[in-house]
Design a protein that fits this description.
Helix content: over 70%
Structural class: mainly alpha
Number of strands: 0
Radius of gyration: 22 Å
Order of helices and strands: HHH
Strand content: under 5%
Shape: elongated
Length: 112
């Protein structure tokens, strides 16, 4: 029985993998915090009376939990990019709705 010596390359590859995982974890946590921050603006209830903020936070938590043990770097990257895009899209729509509301209110004030 011959023991295979662990080579320098194995150690280096392991270190790179660890660094990539740490970086990915940091990115995932950053995205999760950004989602929580963004949801603060969604303070109106849905048809059941539940605040959209709470619904969005619950969904985000569920999606993060489902992807928690994903190891494939390509899939993880796609999930992170998709998450960032979704947050940005939701905020863009929110800003657009607020602009429309302000314009509507200003229009009503001019004809009061």
């Amino acid at each position: 029985m011959v023991k295979k010596e662990k080579s320098y390359n194995d150690d280096e590859n392991e270190l790179l993998t660890q660094q990539r995982l740490t970086s990915t974890r940091r990115e995932a946590l950053s995205l999760y915090r950004d989602i929580l921050r963004a949801t603060r603006f969604f303070m109106w209830p849905d048809s059941r009376g539940v605040l959209w903020r709470d619904i969005l936070r619950e969904n985000a938590r569920k999606e993060f939990e489902e992807a928690r043990f994903e190891k494939d770097p390509e899939i993880i990257t796609k999930l992170l990019i998709g998450g960032r895009d979704a947050v940005q899209s939701a905020l863009d729509k929110l800003v657009e709705k607020q602009r429309e509301q302000i314009a509507k209110e200003q229009g009503n004030n001019g004809h009061g």
